[in-house]
Sequence to fold (465 residues):
Amino acid sequence: MIKLYNTLTRKKEIFRPIKLKQVGLYSCGPTVYNYAHIGNLRAYIFADILKKTLEYNDYKIKHVINITDVGHLTSDQDEGEDKIITAIKREGKKLDINSMKQISNFYTNAFKSDITKLNISHPSKWAKATEHVEDMISDIKKIEKNGYCYETADGIYFDTAKLKNYGKIAKIDIENLLHGARVCVNPTKKTPTDFALWLKSTPKNKNHIMQWDSPWGKGWPGWHIECSTMSVKYLKQPFDIHTGGIDHIPVHHTNEIAQAQAINHKPLANYWVHNEFLILDKAKMSKSKETFITLSTLIAKNFNPIAYRYLCLSAKYRSPLSFSWQNLKSSQNALNNLYNTISSYNRPSKIIKLYQKKFQTAINNDLDTPAAIAIMWDIIKSNHKQADKLATILDFDKVLCLGLDKIKKQAKIPAKIKKMAIQRQVMRDNQEWEESDKLRKQINKLGFDIEDKPNGPSIKKRTIN
Fold:
């Protein structure tokens, strides 16, 4: 039995799929105008743990992630410049369709590379916005036919006043919302919560690079219609689970729900599951403010990307996670210790059922990864046979995905390394700290780590950088 916190109801609920042992899962994907920062990537680590937990419980998953390569404006709503165009200008490229495609393809590939390095499995379907514009136009026409939108000089807007319970997921107080309090004031809108389904080519934005013909003239889709259209196209309506960051709740996910209900008068998804922010110096990371750290930054500082995954798993997904170089270093040390321990074990034998049950109970309880990791370390400290410990931990790693199945059995320590370690210990005994440190670095360069313990130095072959 899996329990998930459902943002719609603000409570933890037993997960009940629409189809027996099958799950339709949609995750809001990246807008590909810059590298994903590690705060963005926390959302995909969380979604991956959810997916792996479902698979661990014998569910078959159809997972869709979108790629937003048009229509996402800099305000995250209906004002500002298309983020892809902002990227073209930032990188000094020619303002044409080829540059737009180059930018979006480059950052799409960078994102896919990042999630691979984090052991995040790719979805069943990557859904690119520009390849689904005709589907979006079709959905907007349905919304228009059902009377939930109106036309202005600059676009087609969803009429939020027509929809009962608009804003339920975000608990928006529509009656007390002042005009312009949520979005930039647009005098053509009837209500401040109304949002663009289609943006027309006007003198103000006629130079937008990507435009399509539509019943309302040339233009391009709004950001929100993209996700509701593509999720329903591949998962039907309703589907089981929709994931994303908490920043999506008040606008993007609220509007996705509204559009889907206006078309089919059904919920879009039954469970909405959101992760909290990664916090950097008491503020969330932001691309627009350029206060962000990428996975490449971590790698350049000699951190294993999986150490960042481990860091994310050390906190509950619904809790803010403070990032610092020190806590990342602690995660890498813990991971190194885990890898070194695994490398000393014999071949796996039998899974320890008691620990397996504890682990499954933890992850099934709203993805309690800190408890799951604690159980893993409890096994390591236990008196069970090493071969059984290894079998059990490898079973856990089907969910945690720390790459434990790739760790090779610890190599025999060469006589030369042992001799160097003895020499270093003599130097330490004589308080020749500088010389002993030089010798330690030489040992490291040869691919071995040395740890000083009360009963003498411990030497292990390095399993990761």
About this structure: Residues 177-181 have pLDDT under 50 and may be disordered. DSSP finds 14 helices and 16 strands in the chain. The longest helix spans residues 97-117.
